[in-house]
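Below is one such record:
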Amino acid sequence: MKRLVFFIAVLFFSTSISYGQCDAAGKAAGCAPNPDSGYTLIKSFEVDGKGGAKEKIEYSYVFTKGTKYLVNVCGGAKTPDGVVVTLYDKYRNKVASNNVDGKVVPAISYPCSATGIYYITYTFVESKDYCGGSTIGFKRAG
């Protein structure tokens, strides 16, 4: 019986997938808008692609008309490390992305023209760690 349990344990541990440590919460915490920008932090998101096993991570948030939103993305030390954020409106129409002409930039600014649920999706393009954090900040337009 001991041999059977030992065999099962060895089999289990040898077939399990091991991913590198992703400190998505730490990356999100370090991704807050600069206070001098005028944006107020309202939400942070953890973006853990499980070493490439997860191709897409999605969150939703209610945006308000007349408000300008800033979505920051932190992946590497000073770059998004291939973490692409795409913002969709309630009809799933793409309204903004940080993938601009094939270059992944660290933030997007979106002036909201219609109140409703918006979908925030994170994907990875040539990412090393498949790990990042993101924040949403807001300021009133006008």
About this structure: The longest strand covers residues 131-140.
